[in-house]
């Protein structure tokens, strides 16, 4: 799936199910550091393929995150090798892909900073019927994960490493995401807050 023959993402649609499965694992990352990250890179276009997973290396493990559709988010750990062939749904050499290490220059400064908090993010999509003007809400849909990092200074507001669903593709952000009070945060509590 998503160009990786051995990749089997495990999608969640609710923050509750994601937290239930991963709270212990994620809580153990508090006090650790994001050592490096990889994005899927289209070498022909020389750009990030935002549909592919984003991989973070933390504490020697690869955490593979991906958003899919509008309300699905997956985390797998060491589920495939970075040396596995990448082939975007049979496109082969028409879309040559590699894993590009630290493939977003804005987030490189946030590597090797202590993770001081982790939040699961939900998003409440609001829309309005063009015909009737009636307002609709989706409710809180699982949208991503936010790593809060040690600040370089009191004024540092770029101390985040957030992976989120950016409308059926992956987004990454270095600042806190807020969108008209539609984002909610569900805190992961650290069981072992020993900072290295």
In short:
Helix content is 7%, strand content 42%.
3D structure, described in words:
This protein is mainly beta. The protein has one domain (11-188). Helices cover 7% and strands 42% of the residues. The protein has one helix at residues 15-27, and strands at residues 11-12, 34-42, 47-48, 54-58, 61-68, 72-77, 97-101, 115-128, 135-149, 160-165, 170-173, 183-188. Strands 1, 2, 3, 4, 5, 6 and 7 form a seven-stranded antiparallel β-sheet that branches. A five-stranded antiparallel β-sheet has the order 11-10-9-8-12. β2 and β3 form a beta hairpin. The longest helix is centred in the N-terminal third of the chain and has 13 residues, at 15-27. It is globular. Residues 192-196 have low confidence and may be disordered.
Give keywords.
1 helix, 7% helix, mainly beta, 196 residues, five-stranded antiparallel sheet
User: What oligomeric state best describes the polypeptide chains here?
Assistant: single chain
Instruction: Tell me what portion of residues adopts beta-strand conformation.
Output: 35-45%
Please write the string of helix (H) and strand (E) elements.
EHEEEEEEEEEEE
Number of domains: 1
Tally of contiguous helical segments? 1
Largest sheet: 7 strands, antiparallel
**Count of individual beta strands:** 12
Helical proportion, percent range: under 10%
Low-confidence stretches: 192-196
By secondary-structure content and strand pairing, the structural class works out as mainly beta
Which word captures the global form?
A: globular
Report mean pLDDT, rounded to a whole number. Answer: 91
Radius of gyration: 17 Å
- The end-to-end distance, rounded to whole angstroms, is 36 Å
């Amino acid at each position: 799936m998503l160009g990786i023959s051995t990749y089997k993402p495990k999608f969640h649609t609710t923050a509750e199910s994601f937290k239930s499965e991963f709270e212990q694992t994620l809580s153990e990352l508090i006090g650790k550091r994001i050592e490096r990250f990889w994005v899927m890179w289209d070498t022909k276009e020389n750009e990030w393929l935002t549909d592919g997973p984003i991989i973070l290396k933390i504490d020697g493990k690869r955490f593979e995150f991906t958003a899919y559709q509008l309300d699905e988010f997956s985390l797998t750990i060491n589920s495939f090798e970075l040396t596995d062939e990448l082939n975007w749904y049979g496109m082969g050499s028409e879309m040559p892909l590699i894993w590009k290490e630290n493939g977003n220059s804005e987030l490189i400064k946030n590597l090797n900073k202590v993770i001081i908090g982790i939040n699961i993010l939900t998003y409440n999509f609001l829309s309005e019927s063009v015909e009737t003007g009636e307002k609709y809400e989706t409710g809180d849909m699982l949208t991503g994960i936010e790593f809060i990092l040690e600040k370089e200074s009191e004024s540092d507001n770029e101390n985040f490493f957030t992976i989120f669903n950016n409308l059926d593709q992956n987004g990454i952000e270095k600042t806190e995401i807020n969108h008209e009070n539609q984002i909610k945060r569900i805190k992961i509590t650290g069981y072992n807050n020993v900072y290295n």
